[in-house]
Amino acid sequence: MADQVLTIPDSLSVSPPQIADETFLERLHGWVVTVDHKKLGILYVLYSVFFLFVAGAEALCIRIQLLRAHNHFLSAAVFNRFFTMHGTTMVFLVGMPILFGFANYLIPLMIGARDMAFPRLNAFSFWLTAFGGLLLYFSFIGGFGLYGVGSAPDVGWFAYAPLTARAFSPGHSTDYWALALIVSGFGTLGTAINIIATVLSMRCRGMTLWRMPLFAWLMFVVSGLTLITITPLTAAQIMLLIDRYLGGHFFDTQAGGSAVVWMHFFWIFGHPEVYVLVMPAFAIANEIIPVFSRKAIFGYPAMVAASAAIAFVSLGVWAHHMFTVGMTSVSNAFFTLSTMLVGVPTGIKIFNWVATMWGGRIRFATPMLFCIGFLFQFLLAGLTGIMLSVSPLDWQLHNSYFVIAHFHYVLVGAIVFNIFAAIYYWYPKATGRMLSERLGKWHFWLFLIGFHITFDTMHFLGFMGMPRSIYTFEPDRGWDRLNMIVSIGGFIQGVAVLIFAVNLVWSYYRGQPAGDDPWDAWTLEWATASPPPEYNFATEPVVRSRRPLWDLKHPEDPDWRYEQ
Amino acid sequence: MSTISLVPLTPDQPLDLPSRGRVGMLSLIIGESAIFTIFVVAYVFYIGKSLYGPTPAQVLEVPIFNTVCLLSSSFFIWLAEGSIEKNRMRRFLLWWSTTICLGIVFLVGTAREWLKLIYHDGLTIRTNLFGTTFYSLVGLHATHVVVGLLMLLLVLVFTLTGHVKESHTERIQVLALYWHFVDAVWVVVFTVVYIIGR
Ligand SMILES: [Cu+2]
């Protein structure tokens, strides 16, 4: 908690009038037809947290199967379905919706707006995304039914051709994959358009672009990147469906088509997608680290510039996923160098975060703990990324557990950690109650320990030659013990996530009341009530600096004297 | 609690923010451009890679009339934009209907072209790589023309029933932006399919 909580004068926060008791059906109806950005944001987050549990359970099943050599927990076919669904779910139904959920909830509050630019489009996008998720999971019971685990996709989350061709992927499993992602892709596109329009057109008085919270800035950059990232996937999936249903030949090598073209198209989406996922995590760190270090962010313009640079460079690195395909050495050299180039802006960001913490009075509350974990793990993930960008080393390590370890370090070690940080940080705003710090600390430490047991060990399995996506292995490879350790780490993480779930529910009813501004923070969302009234702010806020609440709380020493 | 804002009102002018409709439409156009880019890249990459005929040179005819129709519709919708801005609703109706007619002529032209290709030349989407990429790319563009026409028709209906007024200028212009985009894409598709690819 804050060392000294300075109350905000009854400025922008006016308690909402008490609404008469509604019946359960009325409330449910209210949630379904809502166009309010805060409710939609919460729906996004709940939707993603639900799928986080589902995909986590799939991961644990995978880990049980790999607990020891020749295990018979999952059949080979089911194993394929599970790792495909795990990957697809985590990227499309967890990662993107949850980050867009935070953007939805927070951006209008942060820039002092009443709502998003297009509230109805917002609702439409959410329900498209939700329908995409349902469609994907309907595959488990669709087709052949639960017998053989339905028709769940089993072609890997990157669905390489020609495995996805009619001949090799009969039935509808691949169609579920393509259609579900096209549908949720349009939802994503809608949300991205909405965020861009909100940031550019809905800012309150005095909120120039250079006074915008970095969270809004980064989500703006991410949305711009999303526009040109998610659409190539949609295009490629339309081609895939043309191949499968109309007898087209895009990826049909027997008619002159090319399977490598699919790889290019997929990774033209797939690599920037990593930044679509990780930059919102940066955005979260940009809000939390300064507040808990009690210092303004170091190098605000550099942060913005670095984000734009990352978005730009990330468009030209996709083929580092294809070094083993057999490209020309010029291409290999180009994609090696461009990939290494990403390290420069990301390095700038890491230095800025460390410089923000440097000399600050750091409060080790749960959100900050997760952010510190993020910093450490993201650094390591970046380093293994640079290793993998060296094409000769990649030839050795490609499709091994080293790659799995590397990208889980990014996706879990950086992104999931910051998603947890964000939930601990903004839960009080959304619900009016604090999450339990005690359970939060348990959650953090168990998750951290489990994470490192699992993913540190995976690097070594990769060096020892264990390939990804295998459903079992021979006992004489020497992988037994390490696989056992990896699985144990997985279960420790599972326990931590269960604690988190308990915390979410328990604190909703029993948590300590939060008040408007529990963290003594500086951005506008903390100026209104918790939870905010439907209209967000009673009067339109006017800001004069990047930290409007600092100015309010410290009229003798406001930021706008120094910022220019 | 007080409802008075305690934030001191500063001399800050209200920001000059861009219209959200325009920003939204431009964002959509950027996204759509990426979709088209992928299809165009696929088309260009597969030029001359078909293992069997018919080839573009054998069957494609350059649709000059069609192209003139579609591109000139951009000019007429621009006239319509200008008319509604000056509240000349009669003229607006005239130019708007002209745009729609030209769009329909374009679609009819495409339909006739496809009819010839399918029944006379025996080229379908499954015949060869050329067929696959040709129908996908031209079809994707035609789909956008259809969507654009539906929206234009909607506006036409509202105009005829007297619901469109000068105050709707901005929305009309946002819609026109989409139509201009569809026309601009045709320039690319035309160049790639009928000039480079033939
Ligand atoms: Cu990559």
Q: Could you describe the 3D structure shown?
A:
- The complex is a heterodimer of chains A (564) and B (198).
- Chain A is mainly alpha-helical and 564 residues long.
- Chain A has one domain (2-10, 38-563): Cytochrome C Oxidase, Chain A, CATH 1.20.210.
- Chain A has 15 helices and no strands.
- Chain A has helices at residues 24-32, 37-65, 76-110, 119-138, 173-201, 214-246, 259-293, 300-314, 329-357, 366-389, 391-397, 401-431, 437-463, 480-510, 548-553.
- The two termini of chain A are 31 Å apart.
- By secondary structure, chain B is an all-alpha fold.
- Chain B has one domain: Up-down Bundle (Four Helix Bundle (Hemerythrin (Met), subunit A)).
- Chain B contains six helices and no strands.
- Chain B has helices at residues 20-45, 56-59, 64-85, 89-120, 129-160, 169-196.
- In chain B, α4 (89-120) runs antiparallel to α5 and α5 (129-160) runs antiparallel to α6.
- The radius of gyration of chain B is 22 Å and the shape is elongated.
- Residues 1-9 of chain B have low confidence and may be disordered.
- Classes of the chains: A mainly alpha (564), B mainly alpha (198).
- Chains A and B meet through α5, α6 and α7 of A and α1 and α5 of B.
Features:
A: 564 residues, mainly alpha, Cytochrome C Oxidase, Chain A, 15 helices, disordered N terminus, B: 198 residues, Four Helix Bundle (Hemerythrin (Met), subunit A), 6 helices, elongated, binds copper (II) ion
